[in-house]
Specification:
The chain contains 21 helices and 45 strands. The radius of gyration is 30 Å and the shape is globular. The protein starts with 7 loop residues before the first helix and ends with a helix. Helix 12 (531-540) runs antiparallel to helix 13, helix 12 crosses helix 20 (776-791) and helix 18 (711-721) runs antiparallel to helix 19 (755-765). It is α+β, with helices and mostly antiparallel strands and 815 residues long. The protein has three domains: 8-28 and 58-362, Neuraminidase (6 Propeller), CATH 2.120.10.30; 486-642 and 771-814, 3-Layer(aba) Sandwich (D-Maltodextrin-Binding Protein, domain 2), CATH 3.40.190; 671-765, no CATH class.
Length: 815
């Protein structure tokens, strides 16, 4: 979304409203969590309480619209300008019908301009870029047209149309005189444009900018960039109304992002501005901000005076899921406009929101819960937005550390974040992500025990959850974090080879391999595994480390057997040679277990169909889940859990009950209904295919792309997996969908899972109670000592002893 013209007066007026509102808010209208002297997050780099107060002095109004938005929205003259495209089904074809729509803040359509109505399946057209309007209400847009003949040849054109405020055509300019065939031959393609207040047109051609006047006469072309490591992405107007382009470049020494002005008088590029690493998508600037950009929590602005990035609008705090924001603009009066799209159903639903600064007296009093994280997982953003929109007592102020800090050096930035947390600067709610030393956090008493909330909750008590996940997340009998979803990773083998075994030692695996055809390997991907890869995999699926008690058993016979097996693998692999020398490599990997050329196949469970897909396609017979061999404990499964978003609550938070309310919302929404359209009608297991036509076209889905941690939700997904999917053919007959896989060159039918198999899987999942966690420091210790063994400078006993000693010291110091 673009803004034609900046409005400094409006921006100053907005700033005055905000300043007055913040002064009132600071007197205590909102109650913020954590006292300053408690170190619970106040005034820290992780969570800034004062920022929480600033973000709430806005009113959000959803503009009702009775058409489907299919483009960005431009604001001008207190009106909105956009594109609406409708798709009509005519026989086997879908034809598009595109129009320019002008509407007001109440959603009333003021003007509709037909742009293109498709009648031939070999042609199509679309509105390229934004719709522009000037002070007089004249409307400008570009229509891109393409047509193909029966031989596959195509012709294309771009035409710039201008209509007056009543919908009468003023002019049309064929841009083929501006963007020529020579441009296309040299990889200079029309991809975006802007129009200034004088009617000059700035066209981005991927590697350069071509400028022409309002009649289409070319004025100049900017110098061409290096297309191999530099490209142009987005044309905007800065806060002073100067046209500019976002330029991204990279080299062996790093990358850079710049905003480069286009100088109409000099006929070329003008002033350059270095942008931060977090800036990618950019929008027109206004007021004090050179330009705006999207962020983890909403909208940030790049200050024109010092190029520092500041949070301007925290959309999550206002109940808007910013992960669905397609475009943003600033109105003439200083208010913001966002357009979001919800893709959860078969068709996208658009929402246009008007966000206006208000006086603090109009803001409903709520308690502020601070939420901090290194970055906000996209699937948790919608839950924060819903909580803030619907909860009457609390509002969540979300801060993403990656948004407000330079994260070009990820390791350094994560270390800085961890230091803040370990220093006691903990927000009310913390999202745990990969690389965070969770066990170290928990051992220092930073988190509340969530069992205390479960034991008082009628719905989400301990019995409501998968017991293995709770056990895996426990520390010293307490639960310091929870997740809405999990996955199970294991290894499967043919039941005819391993029987009903639930685990294997490395010796047992080698004994079975000895009975298989010559050359059989442990896993189907053994050809791509180095010694360090093998060791890393074994550690991931093991119980050699007990983080809860800060102990390990790397001097055990099981670990020594893993070291000895790892040594048989190469130190390095030339993967290019591997794939080039054997063009059938991937096919052979797929069929290795089916043809008894490998014992184990890696299985990743995030749904129930994975079971039948693995069994029927990759094995062709019944299977057992045995995990990775030699996992380090007598009762270990050799299998691990990977969790979804992990949520913890500060032990010092004043509003733990509010944090628990948010956790319950996240759990509630772990599964949801989704329209399945004409494909995938849900029917009962014993219903005939024909009867499915009358059933509701709804299916429940996991919202976090994993297995729900709530037992009832998991059981519901499992029951649904037993129901065949259907579709309606062109004759109107409901047909059942057959699930087939290609394994190698063979098409294999995959059977529908039965309820007994669903029950078996849920029982199996409940036995896996080890979380796969990556500890970089511990991994470095193991690899360093193991490499000496692989090189022959140390014996296996010496290596195991050294790893045990160093790892024990490390664990005792950290946990």
């Amino acid at each position: 979304m673009k803004l034609l013209k900046s409005n400094k007066t409006a921006a100053k007026r907005t700033a005055c409203i905000l300043t007055a509102g913040m002064m009132a808010l600071s007197t205590g209208l909102f109650t913020a969590c954590g006292d300053k002297d408690q170190g619970s997050g106040s005034n820290s780099a992780v969570v800034d309480q004062s920022e929480a107060l600033k973000t709430l002095a806005y009113k959000v109004t959803d503009v009702p619209i009775n058409f489907e938005l299919s483009g960005n929205v431009t604001c001008k003259n207190n009106l909105f300008y956009s594109v609406s495209t409708v798709y009509n089904n005519e026989g086997d074809n879908y034809f598009s019908d595109s129009s320019i729509v002008v509407f007001d803040a109440s959603g009333n359509t003021v003007l509709t301009i037909p742009a293109f109505k498709q009648t031939d399946p070999n042609e199509y057209a679309y509105i390229s870029g934004d719709v522009y309007a000037d002070d007089a209400g004249n409307i400008t847009f570009v229509l891109s047209y393409n047509k193909y003949d029966d031989e596959g040849n195509s012709e294309s054109s771009n035409t710039l149309y201008t209509y007056d405020s009543t919908g009468n055509l003023v002019s049309s300019i064929d841009l083929s005189k501006v963007v020529t065939q020579e441009d296309n031959d040299n990889n200079r393609y029309f991809n975006s444009y802007i129009v200034d207040s004088q009617g000059n047109i700035y066209i981005s051609l991927s590697t350069c900018i071509r400028v022409c006047d309002k009649s289409g006469n070319v004025l100049f072309t900017t110098p061409e960039s290096n297309g191999d490591n530099e490209w142009l992405n987005g044309l905007i107007f800065t806060n002073s109304g100067v046209p500019a382009v976002y330029k991204y470049s990279y080299s062996d020494t790093g990358s850079s992002s710049k905003l480069v002005e286009i100088d109409l008088n000099a006929k070329g590029y003008g002033k350059e501005y270095e942008l931060g690493s977090s800036i990618n998508t950019i929008y027109n600037g206004s007021g004090d901000y050179l330009c705006y950009s999207s962020s983890d929590t909403g909208i940030v602005g790049v200050r024109a005076d010092n190029l520092q990035t500041e949070s301007v609008l925290n959309l999550l705090n206002l109940g808007i899921d910013n992960s669905n924001i397609n475009s943003m603009a600033v109105n003439d009066d200083g208010s913001f406009v966002t357009v979001s799209y919800d893709y959860s159903g078969m068709t996208a639903r658009s929402t246009l929101s008007l966000i206006t600064p208000i006086d603090s007296s109009e803001v409903k009093e709520k308690k502020v819960l601070t939420l901090g994280c290194f970055y906000i997982d996209w699937n948790i953003r919608s839950q924060i937005a819903e909580f803030n929109k619907t909860n009457e007592d609390y509002t969540i102020y979300a801060t993403s550390y990656s948004e407000s800090n330079d994260t070009s050096d990820y390791t350094a930035a994560l270390t800085k974040f961890n230091n803040e947390i370990l220093a006691g600067n903990v927000p009310d709610i913390l999202l745990i992500s990969s690389g965070m030393p969770y066990n170290s956090y928990a051992s220092k008493g930073l988190f509340a025990d969530l069992y205390e909330f479960m034991d008082k909750d009628d719905v989400y008590n301990r019995d409501a959850f998968m017991p293995n996940v709770l056990k895996a997340m426990e520390k010293d009998g307490k639960l310091y974090e929870i997740t809405p979803s999990f996955t199970v990773q294991t290894y499967a083998a043919k039941k005819s080879l391993v029987g009903d075994a639930t685990s294997l030692t490395m010796d047992q695996a080698n004994q079975i391999l000895a009975t298989m055809p010559e050359g059989a390997t442990l896993t189907n991907d053994s050809q791509t595994m180095t010694a360090s890869n093998f060791l890393s995999t074994a550690i991931t699926f093991s119980n050699f480390v007990d983080y809860a008690n800060a102990t390990c058993n790397f001097d055990s016979p099981e670990f020594k057997a893993i070291l000895e097996t790892a040594k048989k693998y190469p130190a390095e692999i030339d993967y290019d040679a591997l794939y080039n020398d054997n063009p059938n490599y991937w096919m052979e990997q797929e069929t290795a277990c089916r043809e008894n050329r490998a014992l184990l196949y890696s299985v990743y469970f995030n749904d129930f169909s994975t079971y039948t897909n693995t069994r029927d396609a990759y094995f062709g017979e019944d299977i057992s889940f045995v995990g990775f061999p030699g996992s380090g404990a007598a009762n270990a499964t050799g299998s691990v859990i990977s969790t979804g978003t992990e949520i913890a609550v500060s032990s010092k938070s004043k509003y733990k009950d509010g944090a628990w309310e948010f956790i319950k919302l996240v759990l509630d929404n772990a599964v949801g209904e989704q329209d399945s359209g004409n494909y995938g009608v849900a029917i009962t297991s014993d219903a005939s295919v024909a009867e499915a036509a009358d059933e509701a076209v709804k299916r429940i889905t996991s919202q976090y792309y994993g297995l729900p941690v709530v037992k009832s939700q998991l059981q519901a997904l499992g029951q649904q997996a037993t129901i065949p999917q259907t579709y309606t053919d062109t004759d109107g007959t409901v047909q059942q969908v057959d699930n087939t896989y290609y394994v190698g060159n063979t098409e294999v039918k995959v059977n529908l899972i039965t309820q007994d198999e669903v029950n078996m899987l849920i029982d199996y999942f409940s036995t896996v109670d080890t979380i796969a966690r990556y500890d970089e420091s511990l991994t470095d210790i193991i690899n360093e000592e193991a490499n000496n063994y692989f090189k022959g400078t140390k014996s296996v006993d010496e290596t195991a002893s050294l790893i045990q000693s160093r790892a024990s010291i490390y664990l005792s110091e950290q946990y």
